[in-house]
Amino acid sequence: MVIARKALRGFTLIELLVVIAIIAVLVALLLPAVQQARESARRATCKANLKQVGLALQNYAETHSILPPGSINRGRYNQGGTTPNPWTRVLNHTGWLMLLPFIDQAPLYDQVDFNCATNGWLHGDIAGGTVACGWGASNPNFVNGIHSTRLKVLLCPSDDGFDRYANHTDAAHWLATNHAHTNYLFVGGSHWAGWDRPNLYPSYADSTGQVIMPDGTLPSVRGRGSFGVNGAARFSDMTDGASNTIVVGESAIRNRTDVNARAGIWAADRHQGTWVMTHPNIDPNHINNFRYHINGGLEHKGRTGGNPAVDDPRHHECVLSSVHTGGAHAVKGDGAVVWLNETMNHTVFASMGRIADGTGLSQGDE
Fold it and tell me: Three-state DSSP class for 176?
């Protein structure tokens, strides 16, 4: 007797292809949502980092009655060098070093020797050629790796350039080899009222800086931000109101390893890479209004004050910038974190970077 077997039936090639195609479509639809969710989480972490920075600044000011100096004894050369520094010794420390105990980094703070340079062209040599805390084995800051320590609280997880170190050794912008990056910079106010005007801050009084305001006047003191060289503001100095003043802003690292576009470093001052600056000019189309604006590029076609033939999309140094779409985060004097859109009014943005320009212009919190 012959027993009939039930035929076994599998998937045909066409059916398999259809299933694969359906899965591919579903993945294609799902992937952007997953990526968006991940970026949302990274952006939330970035905002949380800045909230911690804002709290650290509040605690520091409560302890010392003043914000930490943006940088200390900045420069390339010490007295006796080709370009003498107005102070005895170049140190190039930053306010982040002062804030270490307030961002849960007290052990790292305890390793810092504030008498030794954290960065500098002559590495801390003093007048007369005497070497004090030179580069390498004689400098405890470098032996302990202070300058190369990456701090997650100072890095935006959305920025995939966070693991790059600055390796520029050009004399024009000071030595910065193997320094760990930061995504967050101190706000120095209007361009020329910040890094190049150290006399703005030690006594926080008179100034000889020249800052062109939107109304065409030159009230340089009005161009001051919260941080400067060898000094900084007290909250009582923020006559525009702490809630109207940004004190720290994001700074992109990605795509800024070129010598013309340096990323920020946290442990040491550098001519470009320590500050967020603004530059509104009486000419609304002036090149500096655009390259010092949020996510501003080095040049923009058709703008006055720059080469109209150049169109470089990279962020300019010292601007508020991020890899987030459409803007960047900033911390206000009251500790709040605000999202600033790159299309916001230039004058309003510039006013937020200055502590006492009398306008009180601002934008709401995120």
Answer: strand
Residue 146 is given by DSSP the state T
β partners of residue 340: 328
Would you call 275 helix, strand, or coil by DSSP? strand
What is the per-residue pLDDT across 222-255, written as a single tens digit (0 to 9) for each? 678 899 888 888 999 898 899 999 999 999 987 6
Inter-CA distances, 37 with 12, 30, 158, 339, Å:
37, 11, 12, 18
CA–CA distance, 229 with 93 (Å, rounded to integer): 10
Q: Are 244 and 352 in contact (CB under 8 A)?
A: yes
- Where do the H-state alpha helices sit in the chain? 13-64, 95-99, 106-110, 140-143, 287-291, 346-352
Query: Which of helix, strand or coil describes residue 24?
Result: helix
What values do phi and psi take at 127, rounded to 5?
-55, 140
Q: How far is CA 28 from the centre of its chain?
A: 35
Task: At 11, list the tokens.
Answer: 């998937």
Q: Tell me: the pLDDT tens digits for 143-181?
A: 888 888 999 999 999 998 766 666 655 555 556 677 888
**Contact indicator for 181, 65 with CB cutoff of 8 Å:** no
Dihedral sign, CA of 224, 225, 228, 231? positive
